[in-house]
Design brief:
Blueprint: H1 2-16, E1 27-35, E2 41-52, E3 55-63, E4 67-78, E5 81-93, E6 96-105, E7 110-115, E8 118-123, E9 128-130, H2 134-143, E10 148-154, E11 159-174, E12 177-188, E13 194-201, E14 207-215, E15 218-230, E16 233-234
Parallel strand pairs: 9-10
Antiparallel strand pairs: 1-2, 1-15, 2-3, 3-4, 4-5, 5-6, 6-7, 7-8, 10-11, 11-12, 12-13, 13-14, 14-15, 15-16
């Protein structure tokens, strides 16, 4: 708890000295994704943020025999505002395939594209984030000292209000050692008897290191970091 308070005070003090959001920092995380059930399904992949010309590219990709996922967004930064430009999603579970392809027009405040076979053409009230890039906005607001956060995200076929709060701290065990993290809980939208948690590392620019989804207290889905490079530097965790 003492380290949690120390880190929070440092973040808050930094926020009082600047009104600008921290600059995005490139990173690459090697991941393991697991779906728990009668038969556990697991695969490995990467979560990566990198520059793409004057814009940014954020991508989660896994590839397994029975389950695979590719989710990515291209976005720009306008002052302290993250602006999604193009979002793509494709998942496969055995023979079932789902796709999304969206374009964000911020001059017209309009989202167009397709979700599976359904056409999307809707206007929105800014700011609006996509279904993976919201993680970067969450990261930025945590850097700015916020502990209760909410914003609009185009998740399925319409904007939804997503809300989060910091609920505690944990020394997270990773294959390469331990790392100090804050635990962030998604409070809305959330299903009945469901809980969603994100572990972020305040000493590593609040990069997400683990995601967990629970039903009735049981872990059902998990994504955890196997190794991490931040701004081109390999991170060594304490053993």
């Amino acid at each position: 708890m003492r380290q949690f308070i120390r880190n929070w005070l440092l973040v808050t003090a930094a926020t009082l000295c600047t009104t600008q959001a921290a600059e995005l920092v490139p990173f690459t995380a090697e991941l393991e994704a697991i779906r728990y059930g009668a038969i556990d399904l697991s695969t490995e992949g990467t979560l990566r943020l990198r520059r793409d010309g004057s814009d940014w590219h954020y991508r989660l990709a896994t590839d397994g025999r029975t389950v695979s996922l590719k989710e990515e967004v291209w976005l720009s930064v306008d002052g302290n505002q993250l602006l999604p430009l193009r979002y793509e999603f494709e998942s496969k579970l055995f023979w079932v395939k789902n796709t999304k392809s969206l374009r964000f027009d911020h001059s017209e405040n309009r989202v167009t594209g397709r979700v599976d076979k359904d056409r999307i053409d809707t206007r929105f009230e800014p700011p609006l984030y996509d279904a993976i890039g919201y993680q970067l906005e969450l990261q930025q607001q945590l850097i700015d000292g916020e502990r209760e956060i909410s914003f609009d995200v185009f998740r399925h076929k319409r904007p939804d209000r997503m809300a989060f709060r910091v609920i505690g701290e944990e020394m997270l065990d990773l294959p390469t050692g331990e790392v100090y993290t804050w635990i962030v809980e998604q409070t809305d939208p959330i299903g009945k008897n469901e809980r969603k948690l994100i572990w972020v590392a305040p000493d590593l620019n609040f990069v997400p290191l683990r995601f967990g989804r629970y039903e009735k207290g049981k872990l059902k889905e998990e994504i955890r970091t196997l190794s991490l490079s931040l701004d081109g530097q390999r991170i060594s965790f304490d053993p």
